[in-house]
Specification:
By secondary structure, this protein is an alpha/beta fold. The protein contains six helices and ten strands.
Length: about 200
């Protein structure tokens, strides 16, 4: 599989790229700094640049977006995701998996009430960005899946997690290791049953 990871130079995206490379996939990473896991093809620049986004997704079987916010940039996640969607539509790439956040959209119902209230106050701006990002994804016409993790940690992954959609009765905890989130994102890429669905994940 030819996989493009937007935000793959560090954090969860780098772990997705590393796992994909270990599994024998061809991986392209967009990186402003030009850094990426060993073995990945690097497209240097910002994914908000239409030409950078087009080069990154051209020929991809799937695209994973794992970008965070950027200091001084309003709704960075939304801007990157919109540029990626436009590039995929132009090049014919179809499969899109986007890392959002638990608390976005209607997913607050999956969290304990105290955590839900805390996130609304402390993370109001990032959640607004994720809400707008998810709207871009849902309106894209692509084969999309949104993954909404709880709080991310750098703890070692254990290969176990809970993944639930809103309405299926599952409640989620407060954290998930980036390593486990990355493993789940790579699984989702190949799971056609999750196309058009948003899933929350925690340990």
């Amino acid at each position: 599989m030819k996989l493009t990871v937007i935000g793959g130079s560090q954090g969860t995206g780098a772990k997705v790229a590393e796992l994909a490379l270990d599994a024998g996939h061809e991986v392209t990473v967009v990186s402003r700094s030009g850094s990426a896991p060993a073995g990945a093809v690097v497209v240097t620049g910002s994914a908000t640049d239409p030409e950078v986004a087009r080069r990154a997704v051209d020929g991809a079987d799937a695209v994973v977006v794992t970008v965070g916010g950027a200091k001084g940039v309003r709704r960075q996640r939304t801007g990157v995701t919109r540029a990626v969607v436009d590039a995929m539509s132009a090049t014919g790439a179809r499969r899109l998996v986007v890392q959002s956040s638990l608390g976005a959209g209607d997913s607050g119902a999956q969290m304990p009430l105290p955590l839900r209230l805390l996130m609304k106050v402390v993370l109001a701006a990032p959640l607004a960005d994720h809400d707008a990002q998810e709207a871009v994804v849902r309106e894209s016409g692509l084969d999309w899946t949104v993954v909404r993790p709880t709080g991310l940690t750098n703890a070692a992954g254990n290969g176990r997690w809970r993944a639930h959609e809103v309405g299926d009765g599952g409640r989620l905890g407060g954290t998930v290791p980036r390593a486990d989130l990355a493993a789940y994102l790579l699984e989702v890429v190949s799971d056609d049953s999750l196309v058009g669905r948003a899933v929350g994940i925690s340990s």
